[in-house]
Amino acid sequence: MLAPKKAKFRKWQTGRRHERKLHVPETRGVTVAFGAYGLRAMTPARLTSNQIESARRVLVRAGGKTAKVWVRVFPDRPFTQKAAEVGMGSGKGDVAGYVVEVHPGRVIFEIDGAPEEMAREALRKAGTKLPLKARVVARQ
Questions:
Q1: What strand order describes the sheet that includes 45-48?
Q2: pTM of the model
Q3: Over 80: is that where the pLDDT of 17 sits?
Q4: Would you say residue 71 lies in a domain?
Q5: Containing domain of residue 59, as a range?
Q6: How would residue 93 be classed by pLDDT, with cut points 50, 70 and 90?
Q7: Structural domain tally of the chain?
């Protein structure tokens, strides 16, 4: 799974998920830069490293032998979780994994080297693995 090699801080604060801030469109990473087709997020979400890896595997398999896949997001935000049946208090839980916050408009995956129909189908399948609505876009 994807995880940073080292982090400046082991645990982050959760951050507030205000409705106004969630739906502010992304300004960085909004164009298809490497491949011919991309998967663009339409709703905000936090993607875990497991979800990103699951979608990447689908892309590689459905894309065929000639397809090249780019992952445009990296999970660098740690999330914590307390063990099961542990009472309240006694500090923050241990780091359980890493996530990336995705805002609408962000291109998450790109693919090139596959026929258009195959690439669009592969991206559609990968989008079903993610907890957000996504749209397949072409390079302009």
A1: 45-48, 94-102, 77-81
A2: 0.91
A3: no
A4: yes
A5: 30-78+96-138
A6: very high
A7: 1
